Amino acid sequence: MTSLRIFAVGGLISFRALFHWLSPSIYIPSLIVAPLFQILLFAYIGRSAGLASDEFYVVGNAIQYAAIPCLFAMTNIVGGEKFQQTLGAILVSPAPRLPLFFGRAVPVVVNGAFVAAVALLAGTIVLGVDIPASAAPSLAVVILVAAFSCTGLGLITAALALRIRETAVLTNVLFGFLLIFTGANIPLDDLPGWMQNVSDVLPFTHAIAAARELADGASLTSVLDLIGEELLIGLVFAFLGYWLLRFFELQGRRHSTLDRS
Amino acid sequence: MNALRLIYVGWLFQFKQLSRSSFDSFLAILWPLFFATVAFFMFRQGGNPDALIYAGLGAAVMGIWTATSVAAGSALQRERWYGTLEILVAAPAHFSLVLLPIGLATACIGIYCMVTTLLWGRVLFGIDFPLDEPLAFALAVPATLLSIGALGFLMAVAFARYRTAWALGSMTEYPIWLICGFLVPLALLPNWVPPISWALAPTWGMNAIRESSTGGTPFPDIAMCIVLGAAYVTIGVLLTNSVLRAARAKASLSLT
Questions:
Q1: Coil, helix or strand at residue B134
Q2: Alpha carbons A184 and A202: distance in angstroms, whole number
Q3: Virtual CA dihedral for A65, A71, A74, A77, nearest 10 degrees?
Q4: Looking at this predicted complex, what is its ipTM?
Q5: Hey, what's the torsion of the CAs at B118, B120, B125, B130, to 10 degrees?
Q6: Residues of A at the B interface, defined by Cβ within 8 angstroms
Q7: What tens digit of pLDDT does each residue of B76-92 get?
Q8: Residues in chain B within 8 Å Cβ distance of A48
Q9: What digits encode the pLDDT tens for the residues A142-168?
Q10: Which of A132-138's residues contact partners 24+ apart within 8 Å by CB, and which partners?
Q11: Could you report the per-residue pLDDT of A67-94, keeping only the tens digit for each?
Q12: Of B20, B23, B25, B41, which to mutate for an interface test with A (greatest number of A Cβ within 10 Å)?
């Protein structure tokens, strides 16, 4: 029961506490307007290069942009606590770590999915892309899985935040890699072989492919394999991130570096 | 003379400070490279070598705007955090002489990015950048830098009353890349967009750099870039007076 309370209440309070600064004056420009312009930028580059349809870029960039809320928010579960000097108090508590860290991930997944869904809707309307309304529930599932998968990667950056100071640089760099490698803008077949191999194990790659098929009218059951792969990648990253969090926490205690800022 | 000295010393100080911040220098260089890489892949698949040169030059200038947009947008907020804003405003020198070097320094960080992107395109994607008019190119680059710095200065002043100026600055990144024709010809954009683009100095700077590289008539573009840059500085100075008057009257400079 205590674990459930730490998971649900702790996660929600933590999200609200760490993101008190995420007011509309930041949320709207950063998480509503920016993804729409990223979609427009690549859709117009796509038109100029004569490479793919607008739908390709709307779907790819809307989902890929979930990386911003997912990576930044997860990294902040450590970076933010460190900045507010509350990290020591949390880590000295006897609270079980699994619900403590995973509870904090749930609002992040929901927020990431919301950002991607709004971007997808806005991009569709602005560029006049025709996506069947019947695909909306299936797309919602894919977006949620994509946000979960990226939040798993975010747990790794959260763990790294226990050891490094410049977390904003790290998360931005990861966002850039996801932009190149996940097929959001470059068809995977056009990437060199080694890059395709990397793409296969990154969040978003399979979700974007699934979402594109759904937007073209495929059924949810026909993309279950892609969703399954995306989910698996998310789970692997999440548990790797959790293990790293525990590892760096122990290292931090041993070397007295938890509050290094 | 004193004003020029203050601008120079301010620029040097800010440039050194920004160079030592991994967020404002290392990331400012790396960030546009990700977008440049995607654009290079996309245009290479399109199979048009001229388009690849077009994109390569555009991507190189993108970095100047990236370095400027966030850092200049949040310049005043940064001084607030340091606790130096009130001291700078109270100093006898006009406040615009403090802000202008910040805009210029942020734009100059973009030089690193420009060089890196051109090298990136040359080495990894084999883009052979022509240089038809070296003199015009040598004029176009500093003119573009100065005008983007002036736009950064104007943004810094315009966002003075916003605590979340960095978010507004960051928000302008993609739109400017798009509507100033860095990667996409203006002709492809909706008809109502180009008139906005023409009011933006980066559009003319970009044209000047392209035309001096691939051939054309870059000098009118350079002149237009400088005229618009001067206009931004003039508007910025006037706006500084108005913003400071209002902040003093309402005691709202610190936004606490």
A1: helix
A2: 12
A3: -120
A4: 0.90
A5: 20
A6: 23, 25-26, 29-30, 33-34, 37-38, 40-42, 44-51, 166, 168-169, 172-173, 175-177, 179-180, 185-187, 190-191
A7: 888 888 888 888 888 88
A8: 43, 46, 51, 183-185, 188
A9: 999 999 999 999 999 999 988 887 788
A10: A132/A215, A132/A217, A135/A214, A135/A215, A135/A217, A137/A220, A138/A214, A138/A219, A138/A220, A138/A223
A11: 999 999 888 877 778 877 888 888 888 8
A12: B41
Residue of A nearest to B26 (CA): A169
Report CA-CA distances (Å) from B68 to A13, A89, A212, B71, B155.
Answer: 36, 39, 35, 6, 10
User: Residue B188 is nearest to which of A48, A169, A173, comparing CB atoms?
Assistant: A48
In chain B, domain spans: 18-250
pLDDT above 80 for B25 = no
Chain segment A102-135, per-residue pLDDT in tens: 888 889 999 999 999 999 999 999 999 999 999 9
With CA atoms as reference, report the closest residue to B57 among B176, B217, B211. B211
Q: Are B59 and B117 in contact (CB under 8 A)?
A: yes
Q: What six digits make up the tokens of B25?
A: 């220098």
CA-nearest residue of chain A to B180? A41
Q: Enumerate residues 6+ apart whose C-beta is below 8 A from B255.
A: B80, B161, B163
Amino acid found at A116: A
Question: In whole angstroms, how far apart are CA A260 and each of A14, A80, B24?
Answer: 21, 13, 21
Facing residue for B175 by CB, picked from A37, A187, A191: A37
Shortest Cα–Cα distance, A245 to chain B (Å): 24
Helices (H), A50-192: 54-64, 67-83, 87-92, 97-127, 136-160, 167-181
- Both tokens of A34, joined, read 């920016």
Q: Which of A37, A169, A180 sits opposite B26 (nearest CB)?
A: A169
Determine phi and psi for B190, rounding to 5 degrees: -55, 155
Closest Cβ–Cβ partner in A26, A47, A168 for B167: A26
The whole-angstrom distance between A189's CA and the closest CA on chain B is 11
Residues of B in contact with A40 (CB under 8 A): 174, 178
Judge whether A150 and A71 are in contact, CB under 8 Å: yes
Q: From the centroid of its chain, how far is CA B161?
A: 21
Structure tokens at B49: 């070598």
Rounded CA Rg of chain B = 18
